[in-house]
Amino acid sequence: MHETPTTSSSEIEAAPRIGLGTDRHRMVVGRPCLLGGVSIDCQVGPFGHSDADAILHALIDALLGAAGLDDIGTLFPDTDPQWKGANSADLLVEALQLLSAQSLHPVSADITAHCDRPKIGPHRAQIRANLANWLGLPLDRVNIKGKTLEGVTTDVEYIDVIAVVLLQNHRD
Hints:
Radius of gyration: 17 Å
Number of domains: 1
Order of helices and strands: HEEEEHHHEHEE
Strand order of the largest sheet: 4-1-7-5-6
Distance between the termini: 36 Å
Number of strands: 7
Structural class: alpha+beta
Helix content: 25-40%
Shape: globular
């Protein structure tokens, strides 16, 4: 008979945590375009209840998921008027405080944004610097990539973002 190895609670507590977050917003004409905390001059911007910063929303969900916490929609619901027009950077700071209360901190983050407009490349350095600053990480621990939709069209223009983060326990 094969015995299953056991893992101690201290080993589990010390193990890194991985989180995956996604976000998608319609892009609409005349809406401000704020991505990764950078205001981008573009004819379209993400539509949403808050500032609709899809990069930060995906990042927040990845962080919350890795920590085993509720998602962004549960913590900051679009049905609550207090979040109308909310700055997503403020939501990120609140999420990071929730992680800190659990003695967790980010170790790295990798994000990909899929959209045709705006182009992420010209803003990549500033977005990356913003994220590294908010996460308290060296620049080489944070990455952001922009991908076009490669001609895949729908009736609605959108931005789709995927974020992966690694968290570690503060005590380690």
